[in-house]
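Anyone able to model this chain together with nicotinamide-adenine-dinucleotide?
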Amino acid sequence: MNSSKNKTRILITGAGGFIGGHLVKYFKKQGYGFIRAIDIKKFDDWHQLTDGVENLSLDLKSLDNCKIAVKDIDEVYNLAADMGGMGFIESNKALCMLNVLINTNMLLSAKEAKVKRFFYSSSACVYAADKQLDAHNPKLKETDAYPAMPEDGYGWEKLFSERMCRHFREDFGLETRIARFHNVYGPYGEYKGGREKAPAALIRKVIEAVSNNKKEIEIWGDGEQSRTFMYIDDCLKGIDLIMHGEVAEPINLGTEELVTINELVGIVEKIAGVELKRKFNLKAPRGVRGRSSDNTFILNCFNWQPSISLDCGMKKTFDWIKKEMKK
Ligand code: NAD
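re: yes, here you go
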């Protein structure tokens, strides 16, 4: 196994971002022989820059750059996307849809370069809106993506690119693998600036409320919308299993530990040792009412599911964000 890893040449796109940065480190530790890491951002802006890896700053919307990216590569992990939390995707639908240029050109280049496997990072945002109306019973099976009515902009592009992966596999023989991530969080990701997602945003707000002595926190919506959140280490293990397994259909990659946003705030308050007054902003973006991963399929396929608890993952994320905010 290790000698085959040693000979495998992999490409990770979006490597300057949150999940991509961790994935480079994860595969480097496993002893992969060659890793190419690409992101559009300047190196100074990457969350993590790993030594002993070929790091490149390239815009993968360009077909020419995608051809450079896949040269002599066996496995592609395509995570590059212009995206962010609910606040970003609800007000940047066109930018999110333009990710189709990355996914189209990456698939075309991978096919031409005879890449052995292609991993695509899809999202729970592909699920149909009418299946996500109940905060108490929001489990989504893989088949719930159809009939299609995904998240406007970002979700439509993800669903389209999933289908493109499927047809490249069926028509051109490119082995594609697809995970639908459900809210990934952890250290070395955005926590301010507008692209951050709920866990990091809430941690930042709690830390700010404590340091400003304001004792108040703004919550988007009424806080009763429900979600599941997956710690980054579970996400990395899941990507590895799905990519190297034999299941080509999209698979949920998320936990089933359902919380409301109010409960998530409670977890952060407990870690920080405070209780804050909650101010609900009913005009802010809030997303669907309820969303959880249904893990029946991943359990059947791999006898595994993400299991790191929110208490444990949020504590690690809190400690990292607190350290960053002190800098
Ligand atoms: P991220 O924003 O931290 O990372 C994405 C990276 O892609 C960024 O660093 C960005 O600069 C890069 N990028 C954007 N456009 C590019 C281009 N034209 N060329 C090259 N690089 C480009 O996001 P993330 O949380 O690490 O997400 C990684 C992938 O997982 C994305 O495809 C995202 O849609 C998907 N996903 C993430 C979550 C989550 O909760 N984090 C949930 C569902 C799906």
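The mean pLDDT is 96.
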